[in-house]
Write a structure and sequence with these properties.
The complex is a heterodimer. Chain A has ten helices and 13 strands. Chain A is of the alpha/beta class. In chain A, α1 packs parallel to α2. In chain B, about 30% of the residues lie in helices and about 30% in strands. In chain B, about 55% of the residues are buried. Classes of the chains: A alpha/beta, B alpha/beta. At the A-B interface, α2 of A face α1, β8, β9 and α6 of B.
């Protein structure tokens, strides 16, 4: 049986983390490579990087970060933000990522998903979607609408219908980020997470709202998610990934036991 | 030095990076002379069996692999590089290398989750690997260790070649081989410390064999 996955998410701007990350007892770290290494050693199952850089010029800096990350972590990682074409996808995959995440660009150009899946396989294409709870109507029967540009622009797309379409086009995974829950630390939106998870044959990653270990448990059990995306709950040193996973295992939610081999076996030997 | 067979497999750079993390010298190459001098050969693979077989046949690397194994030299297949060591693959209905008896099959809809839903294909994520026979490949690893998988097809070798299995709506073989001819379905290069340990085990085995000669 597959283990449920715990996935920290790092936002990168101009090659640095947008906010410093504080590991237990340590000062802020702004280096995405160092943070990736720490999360890897703590037992992260994957890592997600978002390039929130606006400018074209700093794209090269971001790709350098991806390459440096690939050299220090031996787990899969995905890259999102600014992926709008097959060449964009190829750049990050060649730099060492396993998966690319498409979001706004796929809303504007849904065939991007199909082109990516054809070029690299569905397992490499994650459809990320920001969803907003709205009054349900004939056009938005699920009661959730897809929004883009960080929630500032509504699309008129029904979240559930868009998820199903994305999988038909070739997405191998869906990341459902609730704009309502994001940043609240009050827990994931279990309703839309579960509705999408029950309606598509691919894994669903719950995103937005994690503030306590119980929130991850809810998403992975009641929410039927295959993975939980986390950010501030680990970024400020409140919990380590090892602690979260130990909790999940204690609660009967199967996750890969962190550090079974011990980080010591990782060191470079002469 | 280890050689990582260069035939354009998508994960060959990841495999090279994993050995670099271990401090193990490994080189991606298709040069017969470089391969001949290597302690062991890693055979990576991502993608479809048909395309991989055509590439190997077109470049003569299929012959090189067969000779390598015929000489009893150490080989580690990974993912697609595991499956095409067998005789036949249901993917593209292809004859494959035939270095290990058995065939590659697709996860079919008879495999069900506990709730009764057919399992999702591809099988993607971390899953437990249970060693069934002692092997130097799993030295120092826990009884049940988790590794990272991404695949829609799986190897079904002759029973005496099964080294480890994994459950996904029923069991399948996740590691196979014997006497230094080994293969794993999971991506050891992306399986964290456990995967690195397995790769290091292969390297140590190759080094010892080389120096014993």
């Amino acid at each position: 049986m597959l283990s449920k996955r715990v996935i920290p998410c790092l936002d990168v701007r101009d090659g640095r983390l947008t906010k410093g990350i504080k590991f237990a007892g340590n000062a802020d770290i702004g280096d995405p490579v160092e943070s990736a290494r720490r999360y890897y050693e703590e037992g992260a199952d994957e890592i997600v990087f978002y390039d929130i850089t606006a400018s074209h010029e700093s794209r090269g800096i971001f790709l350098e970060v991806v390459e440096k990350v690939a050299a220090v972590i031996a787990i899969p990682f995905s890259v999102g933000g600014g992926i709008a074409s097959v060449p964009d996808m190829r750049d990050v995959l060649l730099a060492g990522a396993e998966k690319v995440s498409v979001n706004s660009a796929a809303v504007r150009d849904p065939e991007l998903i199909a082109r990516g899946a054809e070029a690299f396989g569905s397992q490499a294409i994650v459809l990320g979607m920001d969803v907003l709870s709205v009054p349900g109507n004939d056009n938005l029967p699920s009661g959730y609408e897809v929004v883009i540009h960080g929630g500032r622009r509504r699309t008129g797309l029904d979240a559930l219908a868009w998820a199903i379409r994305g999988v038909e086009l070739g997405a191998g995974e869906i990341c459902v980020n609730s704009i309502d829950a994001d940043g609240t630390r009050d827990g994931y939106d279990l309703t839309i997470t579960r509705r999408i998870a029950d309606s598509v044959p691919v894994p669903v990653i719950a995103s937005g709202g994690a503030g306590a270990p119980g929130h991850l448990l809810e998403a992975l059990t009641l929410g039927h998610a295959s993975a939980a995306l986390i950010a501030s709950i680990v970024h400020y040193g409140e919990y380590s990934i090892g602690e979260l996973k130990a909790y999940l295992n204690d609660q009967g939610c199967k996750v890969r036991v962190a550090g079974a081999m011990g980080a010591a076996s990782l060191g470079n030997r002469p | 030095m280890l050689a990582i067979l260069d035939y354009g497999a998508g994960n060959q750079t990841s495999v090279a990076r994993a050995f670099a993390m271990l401090g193990v010298p490994a080189r991606i190459t298709a040069e017969p002379a470089a391969i001949a001098s290597a302690w062991g050969l890693v055979f990576p693979g991502v993608g479809a069996a048909g395309q991989a077989m055509r590439h190997l046949a077109g470049s003569g690397l299929d012959r090189l692999l067969k000779d390598w194994v015929a000489q009893g030299r150490p080989l580690l297949g990974i993912c697609l590089g595991c499956q095409i060591l067998l005789e036949y693959s249901e993917e593209n209905g292809m004859e494959t290398l035939g270095l290990i008896p058995g065939r590659t099959r697709r996860f079919d809809s008879s495999r069900r989750e506990e709730g009764g839903r057919p399992v999702a294909v591809p099988h993607m994520g971390w899953n437990s690997v249970r060693p069934r026979r002692p092997s130097p490949l799993f030295a120092g690893l826990e009884e049940v260790e988790e590794f990272y998988f991404v695949h829609s097809y799986y190897a079904e070798p002759a029973p005496e070649y099964v080294l480890a299995d994994t459950s996904y709506g029923g069991d399948f073989c996740s590691a196979l081989g014997r006497d230094g001819l080994w293969a794993v379905q999971f991506h050891a290069e992306k399986s964290g410390p456990a995967g690195l340990r397995l790769l290091d085990n292969f390297h140590r085995y190759c080094r010892e064999r080389f120096h014993a000669q």
